[in-house]
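Reopening this one. Same input as before:
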Amino acid sequence: MMIRRMTEKDFSRFVDSLPECERIPRDRGKHREGRQQADYFFRHKGIIAELKCFDEDMTSKLQLLADMLMKQRNLVLLGSMSFNGIFRSQPDYPKLVLEAIKKADSALVRAFTKANSQIQHTKEDNTLPDSLGLLILFNNENKALDPGLSNLALRYCLQQHCADGRPKYGSIDACIYRSCVAAGRRANQITYAWQTLFLPGKCDSVAQGYIKRLVEWCDRFDWEEGIPWEGQDRLDDPSWV
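Same output, byte for byte:
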């Protein structure tokens, strides 16, 4: 059964349906080399948003890591289990998670790096120093990023700091992550997950409420536009980093 995922084109049509929102022209800010802009303005430019989509499955890389670790540690697995489920009881579990993120989520790190730069350029080139930076991630294909691992990976990225103590991705204040990947025993069983994360002290209650409503509005747009979600397990996890 074919499941239609929401694409960047779909999301742009969704943005066009919202008041106080606009697409940022792709040629804006390219007068200087390397000054690419973000994708969208929300709330009268109070929020600058960049959308990234994951369309490559990294499961094979994560499986190679899991197989190697299980062999080294003489672990026996009966049945299927997520990476978290296999290694959560290990004393160096946090270190293993970081290794898994590097193996399975290289696209996630690239997305954070580029989006951080694009949001920063948009703030500077439009004189919007106080606008919030929002990274929107759509995972349509990467089955390695199950909801458990993706939550850890997102928190890991948002909490990274440079050697001088500055946040590594200082232009990103909040993140919306949407997953729609096949999971479970049946090919048509879809794990459909929204995760919304905020950096403490960056997003006030008004901004938090607006970002959470974006998720609700996007949900409704899906159904109204006929983008199907079948055999789904629904997981909502709005949380602080």
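So the earlier flakiness isn't reproducible anymore. For the record, The chain has seven helices and seven strands.
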